[in-house]
Specification:
There is one protein chain. With 532 residues, the protein is α/β, with parallel strands linked by helices. It has helices at 22-33, 48-59, 81-97, 106-116, 125-138, 157-171, 193-197, 223-237, 243-254, 258-270, 281-284, 287-299, 303-314, 316-328, 339-346, 362-372, 375-380, 382-390, 402-417, 422-441, 480-496, and strands at 38-41, 64-69, 143-148, 181-186, 350-353, 356-359, 395-396, 399-400, 445-449, 458-465, 468-476, 501-507, 516-522, 525-531. It has 21 helices and 14 strands. The strands form 4 sheets. It has a 6-stranded mixed beta sheet, sandwiched between helices. Helix 8 (223-237) packs across helix 9.
Length: 532
C-alpha cells in the first residue's frame, strides 16, 4: 500500500509517513519500568493515540498490555456502577477477542467474557476489582493498562470511583496483585477530577488520582523526528528536497505540534504539488512551497482551529490575555492558577517561555492575529483602507519594496494619528502597522512576531514574502542609548537570519522628532529606519 501523510486518527508506520518518536517511547517505557501510574495530558490532535499504540508495540515483549478507549461510549454507561463495570469488562474482552493481547489464561478470559455480558444490576466495583486482581495475578507477564480518551468519563462520579479502585490496588501492590502501570490519556488533567465532578466536602481533600507520577515527556516533534519522516518520503518520491532545511522550516512554524506538522506535509504532497505554479512534487517541496502550504493552512477550517477559536470565544479572560500578549506586548506570568493561563495551556495554545506566557507556535499566533484583525475591524480602520489603496505600488521587480511600505505608513500615520495621545500609540502602534501590512502581503506572504523580542519596548515582525524574509523592528522611543542598543540587537538578528538589510519602525513622542525614513549603516549591515 502506498504511504501517505495522515491527519485523521491513528497513524500506522506501515501505512503513513510518521516522524521518529522512538526516543519518546523509550522515555515513556522508563515510567512503566519504574511501576509508575501516570496521565498523558496533551492538547487535541497532539498524537496521544498514535503514541499509545506505539508504546503498546514497544512494551509487548516484556508486558501484557491492555489498550482500550472510552471514545464513543454513550453517557448511559457512566450513569451507574453496574453499567460502567460491565462495559469496562467488555472493553477488556474485546482486546482479547481481536487477538491484541496474549498471555491471559483461557479460564481468566472466560471470566472476563462472562462479566462483560453480566446483568448490570448484578455487577459492582467489588466484582470488577476481583476480576482485575485475577488478571494481574494470572497473566504471564506484568500487566499494563492504557485507557485513551478518558475525557469522555471525566464528568462522572463513577469514573472517579474507578480511579479510586486503581489507587487502592496501587497502594496495596506490595501485598496484592496490581497493574505494573496504568496510563490514562486525554486533554484534561485527571488529577483535578475531585474539583470537576464533586463538591468540596469537609474531610475530603484527596484526588482519586493523586498517586500519578508527573509526566514530563516532550511530545512535540523535534527537527530530527520530522527529518526522519521526510527522508522516508524522499526515498519514495525523489523530489530532491533539502530535507534538513524543509524540516527546520516546518518546525519553525509549528514548534513540532504533530497535527500542524502532518497537515503542512499533506498539503505539500497533495495540494501544492498539484498547483500549476509549482509543477509537481519537486517544485512543491521547496521553501516557497512550504510557505504556500502554510498560507492554505491558515485559512482552512479544521477541528484544531475550531477548538482554538471556540475557546477564545467562550472565555473572555482568555481572549483578553491573548490580545494583551499579541498587541500590547505586556509580559503575563505563566501561572496555571490563573484560569485563562490554565485553559490556554491545557489546550496547547500557549507555552511557558522564561516564566511568561507565549503563543505555542507561529501558526496559532498568525491565526489569532488574523482573528483580532477581523474583517469588521479592518473595514472601520482608516489605516487599513489606506493600505488597500496603496497595495499595488509595493512590488518592484518581483520583490516587496519594504522601504516604500514604511514611507507610505509614516505618511498615513502622521496624517491620521499624529495628534493622538502617547498611551494610545503605545497600545496600538503594533496593531496599526499590522493592519497596514496585512493586505499588502495577503495571499503571497506570512508574518509573525519574533518571540525573543516581544515586549512593550520593541518587537521584531518577521515577514516571509515570495521566498524573501524581512525583519522589521517596531519600538517605542526610550532615549538615544536605548535606540542605539536596539540597532545593535537588530544587527544580531540580521546575522542570525543571514540578511544584509533590516528595518526599524520607531514611534517617537519627542516634539523635535523629524518623521521620515532614513538609511543607516551599522557595522556591515544596512538599517532602514522609519520615524513616526
Amino acid at each position: 500500500m502506498k504511504k501517505r501523510f495522515n491527519v485523521t486518527g491513528l497513524c500506522l508506520p506501515e501505512r503513513h509517513y510518521m516522524a521518529d518518536i522512538s526516543e519518546r517511547l523509550e522515555e515513556m517505557k522508563a515510567y512503566v519500568d519504574a511501576g509508575d501510574y501516570f496521565t498523558v495530558n496533551r492538547a487535541r490532535q497532539y498524537g496521544k493515540t498514535t503514541t499509545l499504540n506505539g508504546l503498546k508495540r514497544r512494551l509487548e515483549e516484556e508486558y501484557t498490555v491492555f489498550l482500550i478507549s472510552f471514545e464513543g461510549i454513550e453517557e448511559e454507561v457512566f450513569s451507574d456502577t453496574g453499567s460502567f463495570c460491565v462495559r469496562l469488562s467488555g472493553l477488556l474482552y474485546d482486546t482479547l477477542d481481536f487477538g491484541e493481547v496474549s498471555g491471559i489464561p483461557e479460564d481468566v478470559q472466560e471470566e472476563i467474557y462472562l462479566r462483560s455480558v453480566e446483568d448490570s444490576k448484578e455487577m459492582n466495583f467489588r466484582i470488577l476489582t476481583n476480576l482485575l486482581l485475577r488478571i494481574c495475578r494470572r497473566a504471564d507477564k506484568p500487566v499494563v493498562l492504557m485507557i485513551d480518551e478518558v475525557d469522555q468519563a471525566g464528568n462522572y462520579q463513577v469514573f472517579a470511583t474507578f480511579l479510586g479502585v486503581l489507587r487502592d490496588m496501587y497502594l496495596k501492590r506490595d501485598t496484592r496483585p496490581a497493574f505494573q502501570s496504568v496510563i490514562l490519556a486525554g486533554v484534561y488533567d485527571i488529577k483535578n477530577l475531585k474539583e470537576k465532578i464533586r463538591p468540596k466536602k469537609e474531610g475530603v481533600s484527596d484526588s482519586p488520582w493523586n498517586i500519578a507520577a508527573d509526566f514530563e515527556v516532550d511530545m512535540s516533534l523535534p527537527v530530527k523526528g520530522i527529518m526522519y519522516m521526510l527522508e522516508m518520503y524522499e526515498h519514495d518520491h525523489h523530489t530532491g528536497m533539502a530535507v534538513g532545511e524543509i524540516a527546520q522550516m516546518i518546525y519553525d512554524y509549528t514548534s513540532g505540534y504533530p497535527f500542524l506538522v502532518s497537515r503542512i506535509c499533506k498539503l505539500l504532497d497533495e495540494v501544492i504539488a498539484a498547483d500549476k505554479e509549482f509543477s509537481g512534487k519537486s517544485g512543491a517541496w521547496t521553501k516557497d512551497g512550504v510557505l504556500a502550504a502554510i498560507r492554505k493552512l491558515l485559512i482552512e477550517q479544521n477541528p484544531l482551529f475550531e477548538s482554538l477559536m471556540g475557546k477564545v470565544d467562550s472565555y473572555p479572560e482568555l481572549e483578553r490575555m491573548l490580545y494583551t500578549v499579541l498587541f500590547v506586548g505586556k509580559d503575563i506570568p505563566f501561572n496555571t492558577d490563573n484560569q485563562a493561563v490554565m485553559v490556554a495551556s491545557m489546550f496547547g495554545f500557549v507555552k511557558n517561555m522564561g516564566g511568561n506566557v507565549a503563543l505555542a507556535n507561529r501558526i496559532f499566533e498568525i491565526r489569532l492575529y488574523n482573528r483580532f484583525l477581523s474583517v469588521e475591524e479592518m473595514r472601520e480602520s482608516d489605516i487599513y483602507r489606506a493600505s488597500i489603496y496603496d497595495k499595488n505600488q509595493f512590488m518592484v521587480g518581483g520583490y516587496l519594496n519594504m522601504r516604500l511600505v514604511l514611507e507610505k505608513f509614516v505618511g498615513h500615520f502622521d496624517e491620521l494619528y499624529g495628534d493622538c495621545e502617547e498611551k494610545f500609540i503605545e497600545e496600538s502602534a503594533r496593531k496599526l502597522f499590522l493592519l497596514y501590512l496585512r493586505p499588502i502581503i495577503n495571499g503571497a506572504g506570512n508574518y509573525y512576531i519574533e518571540s525573543r523580542t516581544r515586549s512593550m519596548g520593541r518587537t521584531d515582525v518577521i515577514v516571509d514574502y515570495r521566498g524573501e524574509r524581512y525583519i522589521i523592528e517596531i519600538k517605542i522611543w526610550r532615549g538615544k542609548e536605548y535606540h542605539e542598543r536596539g540597532e545593535k540587537q537588530i544587527v544580531g538578528y540580521l546575522e542570525d537570519y543571514q540578511l544584509k538589510t533590516g528595518y526599524m519602525l520607531s514611534f517617537c513622542f519627542n516634539k523635535k522628532k523629524k518623521p521620515g525614513v532614513y538609511d543607516r549603516v551599522v557595522g556591515d549591515k544596512k538599517v532602514i529606519e522609519a520615524v513616526v
